[in-house]
Amino acid sequence: MPLHEAHAQGFVVIVLFFRINCPLSLAVGLPQLERLRHRYRELPVRFLAVHSSCTREERRSARDVQAFMAAHAFSFPVCMDRPGTHWPIPKTMHNFGVAATPTLLILDQSGHERFRHTGRVSDCSVGAGTCRLIADELERVLRPSPPPSCGDMHGRATGTRRQPHCRDA
Questions:
Q1: Which residues pair with 51 in a beta bridge?
Q2: Which of 59, 55, 50 is nearest to 16 (CA)?
Q3: Torsional class of 128: left (φ above 0), alpha (ψ -120 to 50), beta (otherwise)
Q4: Which of 48, 100, 149, 169 lies at 20 to 30 Å from 40 by C-alpha?
Q5: Positive or negative CA dihedral for 81, 109, 105, 48?
Q6: pLDDT of 55-107, one tens digit each?
């Protein structure tokens, strides 16, 4: 599911920027994304990995990356980043301001970045940030609208002035 579709449907999106030849991506980032995907599969969260190549030597074909993902039993979708005009930083990495891999981002239901971490980050930190965004959205959706104005304690419509009491003499 593309990012814009996930946001349109109100999902939190967890994005991992990785490189196949990055030892930390292989040892930490990709396995973590798979664990999180299984742990939060019942929640309105979507997962996406973006494979980036920062040098011409590390470029891989989509077929190579698919074979790698299948060999390691990773089940989340992967996008291939394209070379950008800011070489050696690929286009999507540049657009998100990502300078290293692995970098994990959490995007809220509107597509705004709410969390970013490069390198190792605990599952608890990612889970807490994700659940907070889900809870905030549920609170917003379920928040009761304010009751209609019933007036002040004397039954007068709010915003009206009390007329002076006059007696005939």
A1: 18, 80
A2: 50
A3: alpha
A4: 100
A5: negative
A6: 666 677 788 888 999 999 999 999 888 877 777 788 888 889 998 999 999 99
Dist. CA 144–CA 13, nearest whole Å: 27
Per-residue confidence band for 151, with pLDDT thresholds at 50, 70 and 90:
low
- Whether the CB-CB separation of 33 and 68 falls below 8 Å is answered with no
Residue 165 corresponds to which amino acid? H
- All domains of the chain, ordered by start, with CATH? 3-142 (3.40.30.10)
The token pair that represents 160 in the structure block: 């009206």
* Strand extents, DSSP E, the chain: 12-18, 45-51, 78-80, 103-107, 113-118
Q: Which residues of 103-138 are buried (b: 16+ CB within 10 A; e: fewer)?
A: bbbbbbbeeeebbbebeebeeeebbebbeebbeebe
Greatest Cα pair distance, the chain, in angstroms, is 103
Measure the CA–CA gap between 78 and 71, rounded to whole angstroms: 14
